[in-house]
Specification:
Helix content is 2%, strand content 45%. The chain is built from one helix and 26 strands.
Length: 288
């Protein structure tokens, strides 16, 4: 089922399947900002990444001497959430453990995803609650996909604008995991102009940017997307390098396995932990 919220500036639609943002528009302007999940390229809009971000080595991890299998980005994106609260400009969805999740992830939890509109901005909030007796381990992240180009510009007219920096460092992603050896990319006036060649080696993974705001814009018109992710240590920037008309800006609390990782869940890079009934909350903002 799909739910809609709106204010005087923008409107958004969210599906209960995956609690996935599937539409974002400025009122009175017939331009869709969200990627529309064309299966020919990538069949998702904006999946929730939980309880892992990225890919595990061999799609498995070890917890308390037992090996568990889990696919890339976890299972939240493939589950139906319950609508927990609804207002004109606000929606909150809830997911909790069940028999299927416990086979992959041995923790009782509550996961709340909320969407709230402020003028031309959408605030997406995550709340994780440990309902287990033992310490809960997890990662969580966002994966919103946007149409690229947004309107009548060419793809090559688009850029990412970074602030307070003139150079970024990429953590290279390989088929065997992430490499610790960073690669530098130069910016022009804080801008990284986009083309498919940039993504030939998969996503750009950036760690601990000084300024946690990225602008996706172009040199032709006034259409833009701004993503603010102040509380997130990582950001992934991704599109497929084969003519795909979307681009993703992904704030992460967590990261895929590094090549040298031993598969132990409690030793995973950037893994988060919660004690019984402890709560983790975070949010990011999309403005159009």
């Amino acid at each position: 089922m799909e739910y809609k919220i709106s204010n005087n500036f923008i409107s958004a639609s969210i599906k209960d399947f995956g609690a996935e943002l599937c539409s974002l528009k400025r009122n009175g302007i017939d331009i869709e900002y969200m990627w529309q999940a064309d299966e020919k390229h990538w069949g998702r809009h904006s999946p929730i990444l939980f309880p892992i971000v990225g890919k595990l080595i061999d799609d498995e991890y070890i917890y308390e001497d037992k090996t568990y299998k889990m696919g890339q980005h976890g299972f939240a994106r493939d589950n139906v959430f319950i609508l927990f609260e609804e207002k004109n400009n606000y929606l909150c969805f809830k997911l909790k453990e069940d028999e299927n999740t416990l086979e992959k992830y041995p923790f009782a939890f509550e996961l709340y995803i909320s969407y709230e509109l402020f003028e031309n901005s959408l605030k997406i909030s995550y709340k994780v609650v440990n309902k287990d007796e033992k310490t809960m381990l997890f990662s969580i992240g966002a994966h919103p996909g946007f149409n690229w180009p947004l309107a009548d510009e060419r793809k090559e007219d688009s850029y990412f604008k970074f602030y307070d920096t003139f150079e970024i460092e990429r953590l290279p992603l390989t088929k065997d995991g992430i490499s610790s050896k960073k690669e530098k990319l130069s910016l022009y006036d804080g801008k990284l102009y986009l083309n498919e060649e940039i993504f030939k080696d998969d996503a750009l993974i950036l760690e601990n940017l000084k300024n946690k705001t990225i602008l996706f814009a172009n040199d032709i018109n006034d259409k833009f997307i701004r993503v603010e992710f102040e509380e997130f240590p990582y950001i992934g920037l991704w599109s497929e390098a084969r003519g795909t008309p979307f681009i993703c800006i992904e704030p992460w609390h967590g990261i895929a396995d590094f090549k040298e990782h031993n598969k132990k869940f409690d030793e995973k890079k950037a893994i988060k932990s919660l004690e019984k009934n402890e709560i983790f909350e975070t949010n990011y903002i999309i403005s159009i």
